[in-house]
Amino acid sequence: MSNIVSVVSQNEVAVITINNPPVNALSAEVRSGLLDALTQAQADKSIFAIVIQCEGRTFIAGADIKEFGQTPKLPHLPDVVLAIANSSVPIIAALHGSVLGGGFEIALACQYRVGLKGTTLGLPEVNLGLIPGAGGTQLLPRVLGLSKAMNMIITGKSIKLPDTADNALVHAVTDSDVLACALEFSHTFVKSSGGQKLNNKIVEQDDAEDIKQHALKNLVSKRKGQTAPLKALEAIMYTTQYSLEEGMKKSRKLFLECRDSPQSAAMRYAFFAEKKAQKPKLPSISAPLKNIEKVTVIGAGTMGAGIAMCLLASGLSVYLLEINAENLERGMSYIKNTLSSSVKKGRISEQQAFEQLARLTGTTEYSSIADSHLVIEAAFESMVVKQDIFAKLEATVSTECILASNTSYLDIDEIAYVVTHKSRVIGLHFFSPAHIMKLLEIVKTKHTDTNVISSCMAFAKTIKKQAALVGMCYGFVGNRMYASYGREANFLLLEGCSPEQIDKALVDFGMAMGPLAVNDMSGIDIGYKARKENPNLSVDPAYFLAANLLVDSGRLGQKTGSGFYAYDEKLNRTSDPIVMDIFKNAAQKLNIVPQSYTSEEISERLVLALINEGANILQESIAENAEVIDTIWLNGYGFPRYYGGPMFYAQQLGWKYVKEKLLALHQQTGKDWWKPSTYIDSLL
Ligand code: T1G
């Protein structure tokens, strides 16, 4: 018996223990070890029950996703699940931690479940472009009912174990020792009642069709473009037509289709890319990471207040510093209102909102933030303003305190110019709205100390942000690539495409919103100002000319009621013929020949711009690897997860194809930025 799975019989109960750190994933060794242990336990006539438990921080957290893409080794997980479901001896699962995917399927196949309070249960397979592959779609409806199972499986969302036994999902709950609880449950209940045969009957549900239609309309639709949710729905509906075994066979076929799909390959890549981005290659550090408990946010505008809320939600104490009482009050009330609406929506409790506010201190005095461990400057995007703040900070806080700027494109080395201890200066670039968007771009300057970087990477995990470490360049990684994406949208406008046509093309590609609608929402003047401050702005007269003309004519987007689109008071978007005339006249002056493009040509051109800029970023080592870039685009810009990110998408297109397309665009437009990045040659 491998030490990954062991079995010990004590007092007529066989305890099977799995110990496969870090998350007891169901590797081939665990699967075969589990089967052997079951056989051994079932052969022991002196026992009346079997308990399955796990060492470490969690019960089984799922199949071993590192195995995907390899030839699956025997035994397959469904065979293990069926062996448990058909066990002659009652089996009790002792649950703790995150019981996910195959782990939850194993638990559902057991006749009984006991759990530690706070355990989470889930079937997150859709997040990997999969469906539960070992019977979850057949087992869960028979335990939770069709509708709740539909919701859990299609959304992939976990639930908390009920605090008390519901005798369906869980038969006993403890807040101390889950093995002791399982043993006690075995002796007090199972011994006398014996096993309860697993319910493998067809699920009788009169309103099954309504439940299916509701799921299609409200659940599947939220995962636009993804195939796994649809297949999950199909598999779940098998429970109303077939027995458990028959349904498991049929659903396995759908699982294999998902597993072998490009969407699942991309989403599994995305899962590991985000993990890899959290662990950048850094020189080893001797000193312990900096302890960050007291954080000052400077600037109580939308970004500053959003950052403050994100920190408060993570249990930190926050100083919110503004230049005057009026600005401070506005920021404080924005936070209070947002917290109270979160309470109303049931996102947090009254008590939690109260505790968060209790940890928030507003001030206009630098002297009151002297004991900060970290300061995040989120003030006006002006170098003069930021340097003034950093000079004051240098004179106020300890030299150990990390000084971070939330700037989205200013040169952080230049901000640090006014600071003596430059090694503690770093960029922490949050994305708006900061208390919702997961991405945190961490920007190292030429002086940033490794300990400061590592401390900020750990800090990102504390505040539940997806960290991505990048180097210093204009726009860092996300916004630098976003500029190439917007550049091409602007050029297409001059070539005769309408804003609707461009936006629809990118929505059809899979983006949540089109680039021009996004631009109108955030304000066209933001990019306009940034371009004015860009040291190496393109001299091409057509470069963002469309956007510049709109700003020059006072059309800044939603906030002025018109931008690329016209807006009514409810902000409904409608096309605006004036806009097309502005672009047409400008194009004529530049002798730009009108073209007509298909939706695919439009989206391909903008995505190729992203890919080439990303390749240049890798060439310049501004990002360590493609995973960092893809993590940024998945978490900061809503790139379709089922494509894995721009760089993985390029890999799926084929780098040879990408290079040919770039060469053709370079040929067609004569623009330098279409020259294929030399980095691509290293991939061919
Ligand atoms: N397989 C392999 N490795 C995994 C893993 C998994 N399922 N889950 C996590 N890891 C690694 C992870 O890469 C990292 O490794 C370490 O564990 C700690 O993870 C048949 C087909 C469990 C909530 O989707 O959600 O079952 O970087 O940093 O923040 O129907 O990991 O240290 O080397 O995330 O405490 C379904 C995915 C699989 C769960 C823990 N299960 N994992 O979070 O730690 S498909 C999942 C998570 C399936 C069946 C189907 C989280 C976590 P390293 P971590 P964490």
UniProtKB/TrEMBL annotation:
<keyword id="KW-0576">Peroxisome</keyword>
<keyword id="KW-0560">Oxidoreductase</keyword>
<feature type="domain" description="3-hydroxyacyl-CoA dehydrogenase NAD binding">
    <location>
        <begin position="294"/>
        <end position="470"/>
    </location>
</feature>
<dbReference type="InterPro" id="IPR029045">
    <property type="entry name" value="ClpP/crotonase-like_dom_sf"/>
</dbReference>
<feature type="domain" description="3-hydroxyacyl-CoA dehydrogenase C-terminal">
    <location>
        <begin position="475"/>
        <end position="567"/>
    </location>
</feature>
<dbReference type="Pfam" id="PF02737">
    <property type="entry name" value="3HCDH_N"/>
</dbReference>
<keyword id="KW-0276">Fatty acid metabolism</keyword>
<keyword id="KW-0520">NAD</keyword>
<dbReference type="Pfam" id="PF00725">
    <property type="entry name" value="3HCDH"/>
</dbReference>
<keyword id="KW-0511">Multifunctional enzyme</keyword>
<comment type="pathway">
    <text>Lipid metabolism; fatty acid beta-oxidation.</text>
</comment>
<dbReference type="InterPro" id="IPR006108">
    <property type="entry name" value="3HC_DH_C"/>
</dbReference>
<dbReference type="InterPro" id="IPR006176">
    <property type="entry name" value="3-OHacyl-CoA_DH_NAD-bd"/>
</dbReference>
<dbReference type="InterPro" id="IPR018376">
    <property type="entry name" value="Enoyl-CoA_hyd/isom_CS"/>
</dbReference>
<dbReference type="InterPro" id="IPR001753">
    <property type="entry name" value="Enoyl-CoA_hydra/iso"/>
</dbReference>
<dbReference type="Pfam" id="PF00378">
    <property type="entry name" value="ECH_1"/>
</dbReference>
<keyword id="KW-0413">Isomerase</keyword>
<keyword id="KW-0456">Lyase</keyword>
<keyword id="KW-0442">Lipid degradation</keyword>
<protein>
    <submittedName>
        <fullName>3-hydroxyacyl-CoA dehydrogenase</fullName>
    </submittedName>
</protein>
<comment type="similarity">
    <text>Belongs to the enoyl-CoA hydratase/isomerase family.</text>
</comment>
<keyword id="KW-0443">Lipid metabolism</keyword>
<comment type="similarity">
    <text>In the N-terminal section; belongs to the enoyl-CoA hydratase/isomerase family.</text>
</comment>
<dbReference type="InterPro" id="IPR008927">
    <property type="entry name" value="6-PGluconate_DH-like_C_sf"/>
</dbReference>
<dbReference type="InterPro" id="IPR036291">
    <property type="entry name" value="NAD(P)-bd_dom_sf"/>
</dbReference>
